[in-house]
């Protein structure tokens, strides 16, 4: 399977040609019918998809899926929708979710910008997660960073009042950039106080990538902004 996306001049991601394991490939045959969603099916109906009314968590860019799977297992009272463009990570997540019998998780393998525009209902999201996005270090590439004012505004529209936009990064420069973008946005309040980073919430697990960075002395910065009326 290939990721779904619409043509656009600037993307916040590069499709990497990572090789999939046999288990990841087989997962698409076995588990995609249960866990997979298509952006071409139009607006998501959480009640129809999950069979219940529950708080909805949306995560963009879940990588190999470890933390998203952990959260879905740890918070069974919530429903989770993950969005990722890289097939190996999607294959691994749905394979593990299938083995665990997870019911409160669904996945788009698509460009997040398209999914958020066409599929996620306005005011439906209780928590929006953006963890360790590509920082696009070079200044000439900053336009490719997923967190821009327009993206923050789009997330604001998807959140319910009182819902949270939670970001995390291990790049200090990107953390400062995130803080600047979010502090200038209308309709949000910083849950940690003006221009303050948040303590790591208990619900966000440490990934292997994050643990390795911490051993090397790398910092991790969390930002949690709440949607106001």
List the SSEs and their pairings:
Blueprint lengths: L21 H14 E2 L8 H5 L5 E5 L5 H9 L4 E5 L3 H14 L4 E4 L3 H7 L6 E7 L17 H10 E11 L2 H12 L4 E3 L17 H8 L5 E7 L2
Parallel strand pairs: 1-4, 2-3, 2-5, 3-4, 5-6
Antiparallel strand pairs: 6-8, 7-8
Helix pairs in contact: 1-4
Report on this structure.
- There is one protein chain.
- α1 (22-35) crosses α4.
- This protein has 8 helices and 8 strands; from the N terminus they run αβαβαβαβαβαβαβαβ.
- It has helices spanning 22-35, 46-50, 66-74, 87-100, 112-118, 149-158, 172-183, 208-215, and strands spanning 36-37, 56-60, 79-83, 105-108, 125-131, 159-169, 188-190, 221-227.
- The chain has a single domain (43-227), classed as Rossmann fold, CATH 3.40.50.150.
- It is α/β, with parallel strands linked by helices and 229 residues long.
- The mean pLDDT is 90.
- An 8-stranded mixed sheet has the order 1-4-3-2-5-6-8-7, sandwiched between helices.
- α6 links the parallel β5 and β6.
- S-adenosyl-L-methionine binds at residues 59, 84, 111, 134.
- It catalyses: guanosine(46) in tRNA + S-adenosyl-L-methionine = N(7)-methylguanosine(46) in tRNA + S-adenosyl-L-homocysteine.
- Its EC number is 2.1.1.33.
- This is tRNA (guanine-N(7)-)-methyltransferase.
- GO terms for molecular function: tRNA (guanine(46)-N7)-methyltransferase activity.
């Amino acid at each position: 399977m290939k990721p779904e996306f619409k043509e656009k001049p600037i993307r916040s991601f590069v499709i990497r040609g990572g090789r999939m394991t046999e288990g990841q490939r087989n997962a698409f045959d076995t588990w995609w019918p249960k866990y997979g969603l298509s952006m071409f099916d139009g607006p998501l109906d959480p009640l129809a998809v999950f069979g219940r009314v529950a708080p909805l968590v949306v995560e963009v860019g879940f990588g190999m899926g470890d933390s998203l799977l952990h959260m879905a297992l740890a918070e069974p009272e919530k429903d989770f929708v993950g969005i990722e463009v890289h097939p190996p990570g999607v294959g691994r997540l749905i394979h593990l979710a299938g083995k665990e019998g997870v019911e409160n998780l669904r996945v788009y393998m698509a460009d997040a910008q398209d999914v958020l525009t066409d599929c996620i209902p306005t005011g439906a999201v209780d928590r929006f997660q953006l963890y360790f996005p590509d920082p696009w270090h070079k200044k000439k590439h900053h336009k490719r960073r997923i967190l821009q004012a327009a993206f923050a505004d789009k997330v604001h529209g998807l959140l319910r009042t009182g819902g949270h936009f939670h970001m995390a990064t291990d790049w200090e420069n990107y953390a400062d950039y995130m803080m600047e973008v979010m502090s200038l946005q209308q309709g949000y309040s910083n849950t940690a106080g003006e221009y303050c980073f948040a303590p790591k919430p208990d619900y966000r697990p440490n990934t292997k990538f994050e643990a390795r960075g911490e051993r090397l002395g790398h910092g991790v910065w969390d930002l949690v902004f709440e949607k106001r009326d």
